[in-house]
Amino acid sequence: MCLGIPGRVVGWIEGQPELARVDVAGRERAVHVGLLAPDLPRVGEWIVIHSGFAMDRIDEETAKRSLEFLADYTA
Q1: Which of 1, 11, 63, 64 has its CA 20 to 30 A from that of 26?
Q2: Are 50 and 39 in contact (CB under 8 A)?
Q3: Which domain holds residue 35?
Q4: pLDDT by residue (tens digit) across 12-69?
Q5: CB neighbours (10 Å) of residue 53?
Q6: Which residue intervals of the chain are DSSP H helices?
Q7: pTM for this structure?
Q8: DSSP-based three-state secondary structure for 5
């Protein structure tokens, strides 16, 4: 089973244009966003992450519902 986790882009890793800083449930992580090229996500956009790679964009409402589900599931 594969699980994609939502995260919000908060910035970029200096000198590495395909690595974004992403807030994932309150923790910042480096995520490779090259699979979304040529239209890389912007700061504030939500993405789905799997194994350190951004797989897709999602809207904020979907991201929040997913995070709530995961929080309930792991509680």
Answers
A1: 1
A2: no
A3: 5-74
A4: 999 999 999 999 989 999 999 999 999 999 999 999 999 999 999 999 999 999 988 8
A5: 16
A6: 60-74
A7: 0.89
A8: strand
In the chain, count H helices and then E strands: 1, 5
**Which residues make Cβ contacts (< 8 Å) with residue 23, sequence separation at least 6?**
7, 8, 10
What pLDDT score does 63 carry? 95
Question: What pLDDT sits at residue 72?
Answer: 79
Residue whose structure tokens are 């700061």: 43
pLDDT of residue 1: 56
Tokens representing residue 64 in the block: 């929040």
Alpha-carbon span 55 to 22, nearest angstrom: 13
Q: What is the domain-level CATH number for residue 59? A: 2.30.30.140
